[in-house]
User: What shape does this take?
Amino acid sequence: LIKGNHLSKKTGFGKLYFKDESRNPSGAFKDRPMAVGVSKAKEFGREIVVTASSGNAAASLATYAAKAGLKSYIFIPESTPPGKVSQAFVNGGIIIKVKGSYSNAYAVAKMAAREFHWMNITTTFLNPYAVEGDKTIAYELYHQLDRKVPDWILVPTGAGPLVFGIYKGFTELNFLGLTDKKPRMAAVQAEGCAPIVQAFESGSRKVDAWGTPGTIASAIADPLKGYEQDGELVLEIVHDSRGTAVAVSDDEILGAVFDLARNEGIYSEPGAAVSYAGFKKLSENNVIKEKQSVVCVITGHGLKDPGSAAENLNIPVIGPDLEELKSHLK
Assistant: This one.
């Protein structure tokens, strides 16, 4: 957990924190559900595990399956960032690209698991053990904040099991009498793929699948096609916690990537930076108040998907000459 320094001063929020999940072994929060899911697969005597993934779950499953001595099959969209594909491949994952969106990869993984009796650890709500891994963030925050509960937790959201898991963890702590409140949860999506936000803003409790995603935040570009009920469960959490759901543009996301890196030294992929982009939007609209404590979950490392930020590179080239350097510095 990182206490905001420069961004706290710039925004006026003295209790702004970043839960940096890029420090996990494979560089993303997916290590939490995969650690539990793969452990259960080992316990059940399963030899083959499978997941659908937009990239981070792929790398994580391959990592933990390798450690456990299991074979892993991974179904990903064609558009998955090369860094994530490479990481999964190097760790021994058997990767198969599926045409179309993440929802198509999800459908193929589900069919394959049933047909070949593989254990499906897809990190939506499909595997109950994997979801349990997500709630460990709540336990860590409870201890890292000296047993205090933050007023708001902002979570990058695709299907939304992380929103559910974190809230479940705090709900359990509250049930045990260890806390006197629960956090308000903010599900943050990209404008180019925001089925949950669309339902929330319309006042509906029914989530409709999105069409073709169009966003730089590939990690959360989940149309929920065929499992719209996952989004409806997230909506329940948002309402129960008196929270909100908000969508941010690609420009806002890219701005958040640079803000986090240049002010706090946190290099995040676009799909992870949406939590801070969402915070900026909600605080500017006075939904989140200055005196409230806020945790932005940063779900994955920038090296997972550097492409969008790299497109903005404008790096000069000079010869090995001091005068040329001086001329450039002017």
